[in-house]
Amino acid sequence: MAKDGEKKTCGQVMDEWKEFIWNPRTHEFLGRTASSWGLILLFYLIFYIFLAGMFVLTMYVMLLTLDEYQPTYQDRLATPGMMIRPKLESLEITYNIENTESWDKYVQALDAFLTPYNNSQQVMNNKECTPDTYFVQEDSGEIRNNPKRSCQFNRTMLEECSGITDRDYGYRAGKPCILIKLNRVIGMLPGKDGKSPYVTCGAKKEDAANMGALVYYPPNGTFNLMYFPYYGKRAQVNYTQPLVAVKFMNATFNTDINVECKINSNTIAEPQSDRDKFAGRVSFKLRINEAKN
Ligand SMILES: *[C@@H]1O[C@H](CO)[C@@H](O)[C@H](O)[C@H]1NC(C)=O
Ligand SMILES: *[C@@H]1O[C@H](CO)[C@@H](O)[C@H](O)[C@H]1NC(C)=O
Ligand SMILES: *[C@@H]1O[C@H](CO)[C@@H](O)[C@H](O)[C@H]1NC(C)=O
Ligand SMILES: *[C@@H]1O[C@H](CO)[C@@H](O)[C@H](O)[C@H]1NC(C)=O
Ligand SMILES: *[C@@H]1O[C@H](CO)[C@@H](O)[C@H](O)[C@H]1NC(C)=O
């Protein structure tokens, strides 16, 4: 087949290549004249400038429509998620009273989590608000009322679960405290008829007898209305999430206790499905071990 090609000598091939790269007769470089190359480069230059321009313009128009202080799109969660602290690898709190190391990690996690709640920090960053009413700070039209202030949530409001009077949050005594927080949802007004939403915890059927009595801090386990609405990280720079502490006063030792805590409010809908198992509630396992004699 390609017999013709084989007949060419090496020198001929080299010459053909050289002529292709630069042809002195026609003044062509790689088969094109200078003006042809110039036109191609010009075309691509204009083409890419046009593309870049389009990109910048689209970006600019999009950014114009964004609100600096509020996300344009937000999950319309009828039921905000809840979470517990301490939360290490899993939603499980298991420790042995006699083994300090087994519960000290929970104490340390709580210490770290509660540091910004220190009264001194709260007094420095936040305002003392009127309880039981929403702390509304609306913008008047285009005039931003920013930055917005936030209300104090003093660490001492958690009383026995503040880590101040009882430095190990009850873990050493087998009466551990668990903190519960409600995820932030911008603009959420969770109360109804001037009543604050509150947390209640219960055990799964077979564990009910083992859970024992609970004590809530602040009293009644309420998230006071004054911590709502939340206006977002940019607008409310010092926002402190309210907490509810649950103290297990008489949990049975050496047994698994499956606990579920949920938010009670007339405006936060009951979770409709199991689609989001953290909507308005949180489940965790508690097990306090004690060496048997
Ligand atoms: C917060 O309070 C705790 C307990 O009173 C204390 O140990 C800790 O040093 C305080 N932290 C800050 C940052 O003030
Ligand atoms: C928080 O604590 C400070 C100092 O301990 C106190 O002056 C302030 O009234 C407290 N705020 C609230 C909301 O209880
Ligand atoms: C946030 O806290 C800082 C002090 O840490 C304070 O100077 C500032 O005024 C606070 N901002 C608002 C909006 O409360
Ligand atoms: C707790 O709830 C009871 C009954 O609903 C009410 O009488 C009491 O005032 C509440 N306590 C606080 C501190 O809100
Ligand atoms: C603690 O729970 C046990 C059963 O688990 C019960 O017999 C006892 O009366 C409870 N103690 C208190 C103070 O509630």
UniProtKB/TrEMBL annotation:
GO molecular function, one term: ATPase activator activity
GO cellular component, one term: sodium:potassium-exchanging ATPase complex
Listed transmembrane segments: 39-66
Membrane topology: Single-pass type II membrane protein
Superkingdom of the organism of origin: Eukaryota
Keywords linked to the UniProt accession: Cell membrane, Disulfide bond, Glycoprotein, Ion transport, Membrane, Potassium, Potassium transport, Signal-anchor, Sodium, Sodium transport, Sodium/potassium transport, Transmembrane, Transmembrane helix, Transport
One Pfam family of this chain: Na_K-ATPase
An example Gene Ontology biological process: sodium ion export across plasma membrane
Subcellular location(s) per record: Cell membrane; Membrane
Protein family per UniProt: Belongs to the X(+)/potassium ATPases subunit beta family.
Alphabetized PANTHER family for the sequence: SODIUM/POTASSIUM-DEPENDENT ATPASE BETA SUBUNIT, SODIUM_POTASSIUM-TRANSPORTING ATPASE SUBUNIT BETA-2
Functional summary from the UniProt entry: This is the non-catalytic component of the active enzyme, which catalyzes the hydrolysis of ATP coupled with the exchange of Na(+) and K(+) ions across the plasma membrane.
Protein name, entry field: Sodium/potassium-transporting ATPase subunit beta
Source organism per UniProt: Megalops atlanticus (Tarpon)
